C-alpha cells in the first residue's frame, strides 16, 4: 500500500538528484524514475516509415483513392480503355507529392540534428566536459556562458555575478526581447567553481512538466530552454526538464497537413460526380441487360452464349457495371489534380517575384514554403497577429514628460539614437520638483549598465559616444534612462554627481502595476520613488497637480502612447525601519509569501506627492495601422495575441488603430475575475455587447464607422485558462460558447500574457466554432510557431527574433505591411483563378463524357467508345489543358491597383463564394446543355448521310467539343496577352494538325488504325464545316447572351458576387513573362459564374 501511495505521489511530482547522486539501493521510499533524453523531434517521418505512412496519407484523399480503384479495375477486367491511361497520371501525382513532402521533412530532420548536436558544457567528477545536447539527462549540472541558449529547463544554482543574479532574454518563448532578472537558489549561490558545484548533495522536488510559461515552479530560479543568457559571464544550473518535456517543446504544435477550402470543395464535387458516374453505370448496366433479355440479341450469331454462360447473370452484370465505370471514368480526370498542383506551384512565383513586397532594409523578399494554400489567402476571415516585432519594431521612443502640469518635449530621443536634441520647454528654470522628477527617473528602475567591448585591448573612453549599454527587463525603462542621460548631459542638470544607496526594491508586478525604490542620499535623507500606471498611482497621491497631469496622461493614452506616472515621498528613519521590518517578514514567510508581500507593498506605497508623467512610444512598423484598417474594411477581424503586459499591448492596439476613440474596452482579466466570479463577468459582458448587437452588423464592424459604438475585448492568459478548463459539471462548454459570442460582437480582441500554446488554443477555438471561419496567424518569433501551425494559413515575419517562425510557416514576408497586398491582391487573384479552373474542368469533362453516355442508347449498350483512344487520352492532357492552366495563372478580372484601393472587393469572394452549390449546378447544367447540342445536333444534321460512319460521327462531335470549350475560355478571358493568344489558338491548331497526322498516315507500330482518313473525309464535306460552325455557335449562345445582357442592364448575371461592380482595367504589367504593358481599353464586368 505504501508503494502504491508513493507511486501516486511520484506521478504528481518528480524527485531529481543533483549530479545523479541517488540514495543507495534499498533506501526506504526510493523509487527510480525514468526521464527522456534531451532530443527535440519536429520531423514527421523516419527512414523506415516514410513510404507506408506517406502512401497512407495520400490515399486518404478521396481523389487518389478513387483513381487507384479505377486503375485496379482496369487491370483486373477487360475494359474499353487501357490501364495506362489511369495508372501513369496517378503514379506521377503520388511521386511528385511524396518527393515534395519528403524534402520538407528532410529539412526538419536537418534542423533537429543541428539543435540536438549542439555542444553543451556539463560538470563530471569536478571537471568541465563537452558533449552533445541530445545526451543531456535530468540531474546533469550544466554550465552556460554569455549569449548561449539554455539547452534544457534548468534550476539556477549560481552565477559569476556576486549577487547571484543573471539576465535572460525570452524572445523565442514569449516574444519579449527585454532582459529579465533571475536569482540563484539562496543555498547554492555562493558556489562559483566546478569543484564546489560537483560536491553538492541536494534533492529537488518539482511538479511534472507543464506547458504554462507563466506559472513555473520558483519562476525566478527557473531558466527555460530557448532563453538566452545576457550580461552575465556564466551560470551553473541543474537540468530538471529535458527534450520534449521542456516548456518550449510542450508549447510546440505538431505540424499537420493543411487543406484549403477549395480542395475541400473539390472533394465534395468529386463525390457528387462519383455519384453521377455510378448512376450512369447502373443505368447503362440495367438497360443493357434489358436489351439483352431477348434471346439471341446479346451476341452475334457466330458467338452465341452457352447455357452455363447465360446463368452467370450476376457476375456478368457486375463486370458490365465496372466496364461502364471505366468508360465514363473521364468525367473525373486525374489530369485536373495534376493541373491544380502545377497551377499552385507556378502561381506561387507571382508572390516571390513581387518587387513591391521586397524589403530593401533587410534585403529579403517573400518566401513560399508551401504552395498548397495559395487560394486560402483569398478566404481569410480572422487574422491573429503577434505584437512585438510584428506590429511594432520593438524600439521605444521617449516622446515627452509632464512635470507639475508643464510639458517638456524632446525633439527626438530614441532608444539607440546617437544624436542629442534640445527640449522645447514651457518653463526655463528648473525648480525643486523638476529636479526630483528627473532624479526619480534616474533611480527608480531595474536598468543594468554594461560596458561596450574593448577596442584594441582598451576600454572605450567614458566620454566616447555610446560607451555604455543599458539593459533592462523593460524597454520603456531603457528609453527613459537613455533620454534623461542625454538631456542631463546637454543641459548640465546633474553637473554635480550625487551618490545614493539603494536600500530596497519593491518590484513591479501586473497586479500592482507599479514599482518603487527606497534610496538614501549622501546627506542621510531617505526617499521612496515610485513609478507606475496612472490607475495605480493617482489613488495613492495626497498632493500635487493631479488634474493637469491626469488630463495629459489621458490625452497621451488616446494617442496610443505608453504612459507612466512618477511620485515620491520622504521617509523618516522610523518610517523606513517599519517598512524594512514589514518587507523582511513578508520575504521570509514560508506560506502565502506573495500575498504578504503585496500587503506590505500596499502599506508602504501610500501618501505620495505627484511629480509628473512620462510618455513613451513603441514605434509601430511602417504602415501597420494602414494595413489593419484595410483588413478590417475587407471584412477581416484582427486579433492581437501577445505575451506582453496588458497596458503595453493595449497602447499598441490604440496606436495601430485596432482600438479607436469610440471603442468601449471590455476586460476579461484575472483582476476582474478576482472581483467577481468568472460566470458573472462573462454574463455581464454578454449583456453589454448583445444590447447593441442589432447595430453591430458586419458592415459596421469592417466599415470602421466613427459614429457607431463598437467594443474591444481584452483577455489575459489566466482568464483564458479558466474558460478552457474542463469542469466536472460540464459548464466549460457553455463558458466557451459565451466567450465566443462576446468575441463575435467585438470589433477587435486583444489577448495578452498568452503562452505559446494558449495562442494556438485561441486559434483552434475560433477555427472550430460553428461558423468554421478561415484563420490566418502571423508572427516573428519561436513563441508564435504553435499558432502559425494551428491556423489554416501561417505566415512568419522574417524579423529580429530568428527565423524559426519563417521556417515553420506556410509563407514568410519581410514586414507586416506586406500582408495587405498578399491577401487583398494575391489572395484574391489566387482564389478567383483556381475557382474558375476547378469549375471549368468539371464543365469541360461533362461536355466530354455526356455524349458518350448518350451514345450507349444508340449502340445497344455495348460499351462502344464514341471517341478514339487517342482522343480519350489526349483530351485532358494536350487539347484542353494548357489554355486553362495559363488562364489560371494570368487572369486578372480586376486590376491589382483597384483591389488595393477597394479592400471591400475582398468580401465579394469570401466564404468560398465562387464554389458554392449554385455556381456548381450552373456549370454542370451548362456542360449538359452543350453536350446535348454536340450529340443531337450532329445526329439530326447528319442522320441520313451515308458517308458519316461510327468513327466519323464521333470525330465530328469531338471537334465541336474541343472548339466549344476552348472558345468559351476565350470568352471568359478578361486579361489578354500574346501568350493567351498563343495557347488558345495554338491548342486548336495542334488538335487539327494532330488529327490530320493521326488519320493521314499509316503508323506501323499500331495493330489497328480505325481512324485512317476519317478526319480528312469529314473535312472534305461542306455540310460538315457548316454543321461544326452552327453547333459551336449554338453552344456558346448562352454565354454570349449573358454577357450582352450584363452590358445592357449594367448589372452582371452573377449568382455569387454580393455587390458586383463595373471595373475599368488600366494598363497592367505582365509580371510572369516579363512582357511589356498590355493596354486594356474595355470595361470588364465581374461575371463570376461565367
> Beta fraction of the residues?
15-25%
Query: Strand count, sense and closure of the main sheet?
Result: 10 strands, mixed
Mean pLDDT: 78
How far is the N terminus from the C terminus? 77 Å
Please count the beta strands (DSSP E, at least 2 residues each): 34
What is the number of helical segments per DSSP (H or I, 4+ residues)? 36
Unreliable runs: 1-11, 412-430, 453-466, 695-707, 1051-1090
Q: Please state the overall shape, judged from the principal axes of the Cα atoms.
A: elongated
Percent of residues in helices comes to: 40-55%
Radius of gyration over C-alpha positions, nearest whole angstrom: 37 Å
- Which structural class fits the helix and strand makeup? alpha+beta
Short description:
InterPro entries: ATPase_P-typ_cyto_dom_N (IPR023299), ATPase_P-typ_P_site (IPR018303), ATPase_P-typ_TM_dom_sf (IPR023298), ATPase_P-typ_transduc_dom_A_sf (IPR008250), ATPase_P-type_domA (IPR059000), HAD-like_sf (IPR036412), HAD_sf (IPR023214), P-type_ATPase_IV (IPR006539). The chain is of the alpha+beta class and 1090 residues long.
Explain what you see.
This protein has 1090 residues and is of the alpha+beta class. The protein contains 36 helices and 34 strands. Strands 14, 15, 16, 17, 20, 21, 22, 23, 24 and 25 form a ten-stranded mixed beta sheet that branches. Strands 12-32-31-30-13-26-29-28-27 form a nine-stranded mixed beta sheet, with helices on both faces. Strands 3-2-4-11-5-9 form a six-stranded antiparallel beta sheet. α27 links the parallel β31 (793-797) and β32 (811-813). The longest helix has 38 residues, at 818-855. Mean pLDDT is 78; it is low at 1-11, 412-430, 453-466, 695-707 and 1051-1090.
